[in-house]
Amino acid sequence: MENIKKLTSRSMEGVSIVTVEMNVGADANRSLEDAQRKINAMLSDLPSDAKTPTLSKVSVDDLPIITLSVTADMDSREFFDLLDQRLAPRLSRLPGVAQVQMIGGTEREFQINVDAGKLNAQKLSLLQLRQTITNANVDYPTGKIQTTDNLIAIRLSGKYADVDMLRNLVIKTSDDGSQVRLKDVADVRDGQKDVNKLARQDQKETIVVQITKQSDANAVTVSKEVHNQIAGIEKEYASNNLKMFVASDSSEFTLESANDVVFDLFIAIILVAVVMLLFLHSIRNSLIVMISIPLSLIITFAGMYVMGYSLNLMSLLALSLVVGILVDDAIVVLENIYRHMEMGKNKVRAAFDGVKEIGLTVTSITLVIVVVFLPISLTNSLVSMILRQFCITVVISTLLSLLVSFTVVPWLSSRFGKLEHLTGKNMFQKFILWFERQIDKFTEWITGILRWSLGHKRYVLIGTIVLLVASFMLLAKGFIGGEFIPKGDRGQFIVTIEMPKDVALEVTNQMTMRAENYLAKQDLVKSLTTTVGKSSDGGFGTSSSTPYKSEITVTMIDENLRSEPSSMYAAKIKKELAAQLAGAKITTSPVSIMGTAERASIDLVVTGTEQDSAMAFAKKALLALQKIDGVSDPKLSAEDGNPEVRVTLDRDKMALLGVNMDVVGGTMQTAFSGTDQDSKLKFREGEYEYDINLRYDNFNRKNADDVRNIMFVNNKGQNIRLSEFATISETSGPTVLERRDKLASVNVQAQVIGRPAGSVTTDFTESLKKLDKPAGVNYIFGGDAENQGNAFGTLGLALLLSIIIMYLIMVALYDDYVRPFVVLFSIPLSLIGALLALALTNNTLNIFSILGVIMLIGLVAKNAIMLVDFANQMKEKGESTDEALVHANNARLRPILMTTIAMVIGMLPIALASGGVAAIKHGLAWVIIGGLISSMFLTLIVVPVIYKIMDSVSARFGWGDLNKKKIVRELMHAENTNTADNHSISHVI
Fold first, then answer.
1. pLDDT at 598 (0 to 100)
2. What DSSP string describes 86-128?
3. Which helix (H) or strand (E) holds 972?
4. Are 489 and 565 in contact, with CB atoms under 8 Å apart?
5. What does residue 196 show for φ and ψ, rounded to 5 degrees?
6. Which helix (H) or strand (E) is 551 found in, with range?
7. Which residues pair with 17 in a beta bridge?
8. How far apart are CA 191 and CA 684, in angstroms?
9. Per residue in 360-415, pLDDT tens?
10. What is the spatial distance between Cα 446 and Cα 469, in angstroms, rounded to a whole number?
């Protein structure tokens, strides 16, 4: 197949799962069809008793989006049939549903429990008995009879009609004519399958139905479809009092998180409006600016509709963050219009001249914000898929805000604009006058510092470099950790109870009930969903029975009602349960913000040509991992200790005794595993089919001696015991066999508590370098570390492309190759505050905080562009470099302050928000807040210093002479004017 990123497989008792992970951007539906064709081509190579492989398109880490607890007033077996044959398929056909899995319940089965002694006495083999029962259970279409008028089909009905027919089946006729029936050698009953999985909801027995969505499906949409179907099912089966209780629904969390983001959005709009009122002095002026927010957002919704986007966490987060950006262009335009009105111009002329003067600057500051997001949205990677809607939403809304600032804002200003003359006649005006005096003092203070800095350029540069190096040391010294996506708090965690591998299901169930009793008494626990005999360690599709394991999904009360996060509470509960449940291994796994079980924050994949060599190195790596701070629940994905009876055949003796491998394997599998998976052995009753399970009775499959004494019939009709040609020993083997890209593999896994996963991965990498690695053994990091490395690489490349495109845009706008470098020097200044803010607020470097850094580049470049552009204009008018820079500082300080404060205030609700999804936003918001504050002060000082240095260099080498460009523009303007005049004269003539 094409576009395969990695191929992994897990083989357990009775089931194997092959996971094909495609490259990002590959067509999942087409790949699924290709995989189906490949599997169809090799079906003949599979064992004859293997079921046809099934394929599903789903993420291996996805937890069920909906868990249902189903009850009804019906016979237990009828109830199971109804769910299994009617309701589960009905739910699985809903759009976006990948799998519907049932746990618990009583499944009907026709059992043939063979007495080995009686069967051997009749000199019948188990395979002969199986073949006889199978051959007697068929319907034959035997042809047609035809008359002159009619054509009638003939059907031989040979299927078992009832259990008595099965009991009385003749399996042998003796030489004396006596008949041996099935009931003579076996106990035949209409019973139920062996219970290997149990389910409870809040300690009450139930059938749990888990619904998993397809990887590309929308969880909220799937949830709505399921809820609609539930309502219809309950109404249809109201006479049976069928109830489907929704134990958990991940879409509720998604909707709550989306509502929180909408709330943050409105709070941000209100706070920005207050800032506008302070700076623009009147409600009228504030409204002219604020009208750009709803106008831009409304048209943005139209753009999102065209792109096929939905209102999800990413798009809503983008709308929250752009509130400050949306008013930027309008603030700069309106402030310049009012500056022209203060020169004595009327409203219309001031609006025209103000937009004309500032148009190029506003266009450039908008385009630099656009170009920092475009490279991310255009890349073909996992992080691009996560952030694409965020980036495109920001781009659309930012471009629309530019359109509004060039059309609606000047139009409103020319009609309703008004210079406010503050006299202090009321409290509001008195406060505004006081505020203006503070701004004047701040301007004088900054101007003084700027004049000193222009005269002491060396000290300014040294101080800036020291600050920059110190901020990067926060990363190097581990004050800022790294991870792929912040964990967040979904309010759920999974308790896994593991008993010794040789215990029965009943023992595991008793231990699990003790854990449930303890958890149910905890004040912070809201509900418990329990499964016994099933483990989700294997990911999606794992249906193998693990009688020594159980899982309890704990849902906690609302976050605002508890004082500790779910991850810390889970760690505490783990210790308490370990003390309560002696002999059991307890692990806890928080449920991530994305709805997946955080099973392995650290996941090292060790591969080797041999399973033993890979396992040996993995054990060494596990010991090294256990010594690292912050590591919790370290383990290997495949462990020894699974008890097994190993049969070693002597093939020479087999040949002498006349026994072949097919007979041995088939007989042993039938005796100890049964025939419940045989599609030919089915009992049909009405519209349902039930398994017929032929196997030894319980007495004949208790211990290793029963394996030794199993009898076979050779080609001479003689009974041959297994121990005559095989060695039977009791040993232990691995619980699971894994492969990665066709190589044997073992995963070294661990949770991380109290430290960022990236920091632990760094320490683990250093420890691994000290270990001796055998030839043929390699290791790579998977999971969070793999995603983090890929994401940081993609975002780093996008960051570099953004800076290059930003520079090229400024070169095109200013017709200058040198002065755009001055703007680029503002970028590192923002990193000082951004990294400091991350360290002080204990946030990590993740894809969202890096996205904040990228967003910051566009925002801080905007301030530098305004300064450089105005300084260029003043120099063209003949001012010296120092005076032009001071003049630019004074003229542009107010819009820089307004836009920066508006953006910081707009970020505060996101930075201070609480709730499950707030964790993914905190780092992004604090990066922008810290970066904007530091860049605002440093840009006003350092950028002018860099400008003066570059101006001196340009003058020495004759680069970008502004006076020459001014002369060229004047000559071109004069030439165009003369051409226009001549054209007018010719027209008149």
1. 58
2. IIHHHHHTSTTEEEEEEESS--EEEEEEE-HHHHHHTT--HHH
3. helix 962-988
4. yes
5. -120, 0
6. strand 549-556
7. 10
8. 15
9. 878 877 887 888 788 777 766 667 777 788 888 888 888 888 888 888 888 888 88
10. 24
3-state secondary structure of 631: strand
Count Cβ atoms below 10 Å from residue 576 Cβ, excluding itself. 13
Element (H, E) at 588: strand 585-590
Which residues are registered as beta bridge partners of 112? 188, 694
Identity of the amino acid at 829:
L
pLDDT at 972 over 60: no
If pLDDT is split at 50, 70 and 90, which confidence band does 541 have? very low
Q: Helix H segments across 627-703?
A: 651-657, 661-672
Question: What gap in Å lies between CA 369 and CA 408, rounded to an integer?
Answer: 21
Among 154-158, 429-433, 974-978, the range scoring the smallest mean pLDDT is 974-978
Distance CA 469, CA 479 (A): 14
Report pLDDT for 577: 92
Q: 444: exposed, middle or buried (C-beta count within 10 Å: 0-12, 13-18, 19+)?
A: exposed
Q: What is the mean pLDDT of residues 507-519?
A: 93
Claim: this prediction has a pTM higher than 0.85: no
Assess contact for 894 and 901: CB atoms under 8 A: no
Cβ density class 64-73: b for 16+ within 10 Å, e for less: bbbbbbbbbe
Answer yes or no: are the C-beta atoms of 554 and 519 closer than 8 Å.
Answer: yes
Residue 452 has pLDDT above 50, yes or no: yes
937: left (phi over 0), alpha (psi -120 to 50) or beta: alpha
CA–CA separation, 595 vs 494, rounded Å? 12
Residue written as token pair 């062996």: 194
Q: Is residue 296 within 8 Å of 404, Cβ to Cβ?
A: yes
Return the amino acid letter for 738. E
Angle between helix axes 505-520 and 566-580 (nearest 10 degrees) is 120
Q: Tell me the residue type at 882.
A: D
Q: How far is residue 69 from each of residues 93, 199, 536, measured CA to CA in Å?
A: 19, 9, 18
Phi and psi angles of residue 905, each rounded to the nearest 5 degrees, phi first: -65, -40
What's the distance, CA 694 to chain centroid?
A: 45
Please name the residues in contact with 613: beta carbons below 8 A apart, sequence gap of 6 or more. 774, 776, 777
Greatest distance between any 2 Cα atoms in the chain: 134
Average pLDDT of every residue of the chain:
82
Alpha carbon 351 to chain centroid distance?
49
Look at residue 986 in the predicted model and tell me its pLDDT: 45
Alpha carbons 856 and 413: distance in angstroms, whole number: 30
Q: What is the 3-state secondary structure (H, E, C) of 729-776?
A: EEEEECCCEEEECCEEEEEEEEEECCCCHHHHHHHHHHHHHCCCCCCC
Phi, psi of 401 (to 5 degrees): -65, -35
Radius of gyration of the chain (CA): 37
CA neighbor of 737 nearest in space, from 748, 728, 747? 747
d(CA 358, CA 339): 11
Q: What are 982's two structure tokens?
A: 């001549």
Identify the three-state secondary structure at position 247: strand
Residue type, 803: I
Burial class for 538, CB neighbours closer than 10 Å (0-12, 13-18, 19+): buried
Q: What is the DSSP string of 32-77?
A: HHHHHHHHHHTGGGS-TTSPPP------TTBPPSEEEEEE-SS-HH
Mean pLDDT to the nearest integer, 123-128: 87
**C-alpha closest to that of 370 among 337, 403, 332:** 403
The 3-state DSSP class for residue 645 equals strand
Distances (CA, A) of 675 to 111, 156, 647, 659, 748: 10, 25, 21, 22, 37
CA distances from 173 to 119, 170, 177, 185, 186 (A): 14, 8, 6, 14, 17
Grouping H, G, I as helix, E, B as strand and the rest as coil, residue 526 is: strand
